[in-house]
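Quick check before the chapter quiz. The format below is the same one you will see on the exam, so make sure you can read both the input and the output lines.
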Amino acid sequence: MMFGWEKKMANLVEATTQQQFEDFLAKAGKCLTVVHFQAAWAPQCGHMNEVMAELAKEHISTTFVKMEAEAVPEVSEKYEISSVPTFLFFKGGEKVDRLDGAHAPELTKKVQRLAVTGSPRGNAESSTTDLNQRLKKLINAAPCMLFMKGSSQEPRCGFSRQIVALLKEHNIQFSSFDILSDEEVRQELKTYSNWPTYPQLYVNGELVGGLDIVKELAESGELENTCPKAVTLEHRLKTVINQGPVMLFMKGNKEAARCGFSKQILEILNGTGVDYDTFDILQDEEVRQALKTYSNWPTYPQLYVKGELIGGLDIVKELKESGDLVSVLKGES
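Here is the expected output.
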């Protein structure tokens, strides 16, 4: 069975039975297969099909499969499909990755990383380079970066809890990354840093060490000289606002919005194909309150491009309706 935009491209197909699904995986062999579990009643699935069509033009060796999740329950149950859209990525018949939700930028990233664009060796080297660049960006996201289990507000292991307490006790200004939220970062950062455990503390992009090292620095009085002291609130807000070219301050995160307005603005941004970063204001009450005054904008979500406030949901909706949103996000206007 063919659908709309598939007619002109052999690598866009639809599976309506478990046998068709298995046949497509077998036919693809070691090449990447992307399976979209969708529902005809969900408009976000229609949009993601359009994204897949564009990706299929760029990745002709990758097979893109569309499946009605409810029509093939045995497959949906096997792979624990509980919502749509959900994307599964296969190589050699084995699932290698997964993406839940209508996140066009994330889908594009995963396809680019996993797709076979040349020899397996060349692709592996390219993927490693891309991942190293991502790790380097994360490590340098703030002058002092802590990679931990959980957040600084809610540590999820004893070692992480101890190191957060030490840094706060010594008035150290730091940002954190929850390794439990990203398995790829969790595993690969250990190799990148040649440090096998967590938490890991970085200052100006350089590894300081784990809990034991931080304890030693604290006991010797060198911690304050090693790590940046807390800065003014205004400086902190400027740093956070400029953490990425496009920054969204919202309730929740990309994977789980925690209010209706945040959910709506995520759906709009995910539909642009432009990458963006988010900051969960529910995790930082200081930023939540101070940013409203700093920006002179009393509500959330708030969207910033290159450090400048664009506005909230209504402004973003207007930009979308006028056709200006993508150019604004890219800083072209």
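If your answer matched, good. The first strand starts at residue 12 and ends at 15.
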